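Summary for the lay section of the report: proteins are chains of building blocks that fold into shapes. Here we show the chain for P-type ATPase A domain-containing protein and then a coded description of the shape we predicted for it.
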Amino acid sequence: MTEGWPKGAHDGLGIVASILLVVFVTATSDYKQSLQFKDLEKEKKKITVQVTRDGFRQKLSIYDLLPGDIVHLSIGDLVPADGLFVSGFSVLINESSLTGESEPVNVNSVNPFLLSGTKVQDGSCKMLVTTVGMRTQWGKLMATLSEGGDDETPLQVKLNGVATIIGKIGLFFAVVTFAVLVQGLFSRKLQEGSHLIWSGDEALEILEFFAIAVTIVVVAVPEGLPLAVTLSLAFAMKKMMNDRALVRHLAACETMGSATTICSDKTGTLTTNHMTVVKACICGKIKDVGTSEGASNLSSEIPDSSLRVLLQSIFNNTGGEVVTNKDGKIELLGTPTETAILEFGMLLGGDFKAERKHQRL
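The coded shape description reads as follows.
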């Protein structure tokens, strides 16, 4: 420290370089993850809803909704804002995202409240938007969750404890070393009888003693420790990405790794949410139809006229749909009960689109 430039700058530049390296690695990892989440946010913002505004029905992004708009909701739609039921029929709302209860809520003129973030499980309706954005119940809930602030992670707490202990020990030895060196200088001056006369060289010697004490404090704290921790967390984040788990912040990896107890809550029974028709009573016969073989046996045992009426009833008296998704696979839309009955109709050999087209003709 007293050697001047450039010889005396080695230690200082080394410490600055190690700090910059830690900051750079952390910032790069967090930035890459933020880009991943930014892409996800863009995809989530592409949701559009049917809205009546200024007397015209149109498609709008859920982020362009305003109080006073009339939103048209049907099976499978997410309620985009808080609002009031205007008109509709058989509206069942799944509010499990807000309340945790899996039992759907019936919404009508008596109970007209629709909440943002819930899902339409059955029926269709028109909703008058009353509040949007952070003023909705969902927005208030998110604001409450974010009020807690940034608590220190378990690893940060441990590292702070270790750094404090190392700092105290280093400071203790630095003070002892400085005191011993200064005492040695005073003893020598006393023996020589020149303790009242001080020269510039002796003042510089005391300054060197102080530099030695500061060096002890600096060397006691390992500069490579933050870098090692950051690199290990970045490696853990990479491993989680390989398992298709995105992590927004590096600290989340070690926070979850330090978890000793995971508390979970469930309401009702955990199922695959897939209902099927297992028994049918047709023409006075009770048959097991839980498999394709049982359904084909039933279709061969009942008269063609009865089978035709049954398929007409299944495919026309429903709010569900049989569609082909972008992967070319057949997908059933509707409530679990409707999809079960539609699947039963298809096992009997029925064609949803042909039956609907025939009915319109």
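Put simply, here is one thing we learned. The first strand starts at residue 48 and ends at 53.
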